[in-house]
Amino acid sequence: MHELPLVFFTVLAQASAGLLILSVINQLINRKATTDQALFKMGVACLILVALAGGSAILHLGRPFRAMNALFGTGRSPMSNEIVSCAVYGGLLFISLAVMYLRPKLKGLLLLLRVITAVSAVVLIVLIPRVYTLLTIPQWDTHFTSYQMILAAFTSGGALALIWQPTRLNMVITVFAAVLGFLIIPSYMAHLSASSPEMLMQGMGFFDAKLALYAVALVLAVYSYKKRIVPVALSSGVVFIVAELAGRIAFYDLWSIGM
Fold first, then answer.
1. 124/17 Cα distance (integer angstroms)
2. Count of domains in the chain?
3. What are phi and psi for residue 185, nearest 5 degrees?
4. Residue 184: which CATH number?
5. Which of 256, 245, 254 is nearest to 139 (CA)?
6. How confident is the model over 81-134, as pLDDT tens digits?
7. Is the dihedral of CA 169, 175, 178, 181 positive or negative?
8. Which of the two ends of the chain, N or C, has the fewest CB atoms closer than 10 A to its terminal CB?
9. Is the sign of the CA dihedral 136, 137, 141, 145 positive or negative?
10. What is the pLDDT of residues 136-172, one digit of tens each?
């Protein structure tokens, strides 16, 4: 269970970043499509997710009170870069929400802050997979690691966005990310069977669970979009997150004793 905090950290941070990015893209495309109240609620949801992610990351440390030491490796350590980028994203998100709540009439400043926060979310999504591109772990040192982690931001984040922004763009991105996730599985399994067949077999239950949950979440997402049913959209987002958690457990088990 040692890596379980990292499972929650990566998945929840990616879901938060994906949700924020999509909310900003939709706002830029059609500013009248989403109310200020909906944007604020989406921001709060993003903040809760990234706060839970950060708390999970701290639990992974042997000595949580020395978490600040990670800052000393910024620029040269992928893990430090990941932690700093998450902190920057969370800080910008908090500031944008504070301005939105205290100074709602400052529309130009609010949009600028949200765009900057979205850029930091993109940086976070890109930096997280770089922690795991290690030559010493061939089953991780593959482009499939980046593909799956980036897609995770837009399956769960896209489904959650449908709660407040049931737009065609969010629906298309959610479906595209989920379908692409399905399509890369055969090649990914072939890679793992060549690099780590025994560990692959041990983790097949989690991989199978991820695929099954993907299918359920995708059906819920499409149904929620067509019928505009908020609880169904929420269920889709939750199921996607659980699916990504299952897949991430299998991912971490590829180099350690199974959870």
1. 8
2. 1
3. -60, -45
4. 1.20.1630.10
5. 254
6. 888 999 999 999 999 999 999 999 999 999 999 999 999 999 999 999 999 887
7. negative
8. N
9. negative
10. 788 888 899 999 999 999 999 999 999 999 999 999 9
